[in-house]
């Protein structure tokens, strides 16, 4: 496994899906998954997708600035750390954000998101 | 274990030590530890401390804005996600940063840093 390739492919897939079909992110989370979104903790795939699809903005575009990744422990996990900006439809300025994901391999050879922490970087 | 209490205590200890006695961070890392510092990957406690103590600035002050934490997996790990600003001595403006740590429990009942990713948030 090349963790950098995993991280790049995940980031590309995650934000493209977020920006075009947010409900399609459901397959990336499991019942044990946890999202911290601007300080609010949400557990489980169903609640996470309800949160993400219920955000006030309907159209957005993520632009990625940096991707860092590291393997995490002997179980094949990958930690992905992203910085970028989020452009909301109709807003004049993009919002800077940072986000991290802890990806865990599945028996089927894919990865799911165990930990997801998102924060806007206020200037 | 209360992960929020672990995260708060770790963050307080980590940045106080960084700002007053950077070499004192050595006890928080092990040979398996990995630091990504502005995209540069450094493995192992000795190399990580050499990197941190060799940074060009000698005096700095971290101010923390947000702390998020989540448990990570059955092994008692804690993920800590920090945002804040870094004031360097003699510089007019503080630098915004984001940093994440994956803390792993030790047999002695403490935690060490397995993963550490640091990024400045350029405006």
Commentary on this structure:
2 copies of one chain form a homodimer. Chain A is α+β, with helices and mostly antiparallel strands. The first copy, chain A, has one domain (3-119): Roll (Nuclear Transport Factor 2, Chain: A), CATH 3.10.450.50. Chain A contains 2 helices and 6 strands. The first copy, chain A, has helices spanning 3-20, 45-53; strands at residues 29-37, 40-43, 60-72, 77-88, 95-105, 111-120. In chain A, strands 2-1-6-5-4-3 form a 6-stranded mixed sheet, covered by helices on one side. In chain A, a hairpin with a 2-residue loop joins strand 1 and strand 2 (40-43). The model of chain A has no long low-confidence stretch (mean pLDDT 95). Chains A and B meet through strand 3, strand 4, strand 5 and strand 6 of A and strand 3, strand 4, strand 5 and strand 6 of B.
